[in-house]
Amino acid sequence: MNYGLHLSASGVLTSMYRQDIHANNLANATTVGFKRDMAAITQRSADSVEDNHPAIYRHPLMDQLGGGVFAGPQHISFEAGALQKTSNPLDLALESPDTFFAVTRTNPNTGEAELRFTRDGRFTRSAEGFLVTATGGFKVLDENNQAIALDEGQGVLIDPDARVQQGGAEVARLQVTGIINRDALTKAGHNLFKYNGNGDGREAAINGRVRSGFVENSTVDPIKELLGMMQSTSAVQYNSNLIKYHDMLMDRAVNSLGRVG
Question: Residues with Cβ < 8 Å from 27, sequence gap 6 or more?
């Protein structure tokens, strides 16, 4: 395979990957509690270096050109978003950027309850009387890993220490948890995170306080994402043009130079 064609193709693929990341961030610029994704690109060694070929099978110039680039690994930015006042008593914002709400979802295939985490503090009361997430309807857990049942006939007040109160009495306390290794978190849809490390990932939160009547905005900066989208689109076009030029050179080599002599 033409070596230049190979390098240009890797440039197209990784630039399209960057496009997808920026496009998804832009689509979630107004999603409460959304954490933006960051595209990463790693350099690939030349084939002869990667496969550890003997020196007699290597070409110094080709080795210096490298083997193109790889997409990933992808990272999540857990920076804190700005707080927005809603005055809804069931809207909550976490004070610490290192904490998460613990919720549970039911696996549609096995029927088992699965632990998930979220920064989206928009909660509501379900038809069954449980405190659930406004997005997806997942049950919010208390400190004892139990779903929080609410009395339909009384209002709900959640204080800064995450205590859920009705009629002046405490009925539960929200589970606000830290995460042992945030790099082990992956997005699981519905603004939820799944922990992929050892154990369930939870640790005691240093600051488990919440602010009632507020939500945390998305951390996406639309201007930066749009600029990134434009840059990655340009990179796709440049590499596509190079593929076209390599194709023209191969055509000349086969159909013109090949006829000489």
Answer: none
**pTM of the model as a whole:** 0.80
Q: Can you tell me whether residue 114 is helix, strand or coil?
A: strand
**Distance of alpha carbon 113 from alpha carbon 146, whole angstroms:** 11
pLDDT digits (tens, 9 = 90+) for 180-194: 999 999 999 999 999
Q: Is 29 exposed, middle or buried (0-12, 13-18, 19+ CB in 10 A)?
A: middle
The DSSP element (H or E) to which 62 belongs, if any, is: helix 60-65
Question: Would you state the structure tokens that stand for residue 112, as one six-digit string?
Answer: 């088992």
Q: Which of 204, 220, 219, 210 is nearest to 123 (CA)?
A: 210
- For residues 81 and 119, give the distance between their C-alpha atoms in angstroms, rounded to a whole number: 10
Q: How many helices (H) and strands (E) does the chain have?
A: 4, 20
CA dihedral sign, ordered 55, 58, 60, 63? negative
* Lowest-pLDDT choice from 5-14, 98-107, 150-159, 200-209: 5-14
Q: Is the distance from CB of 42 to CB of 69 less than 8 angstroms? A: yes
Burial group, residue 5, by CB count within 10 angstroms (0-12, 13-18, 19+) = middle
Task: Kindly report, residue by residue over 120-135, the tens digit of the pLDDT.
Answer: 999 999 999 999 999 9
How far is residue 260's CA from residue 101's CA, in Å, rounded to a whole number? Answer: 73
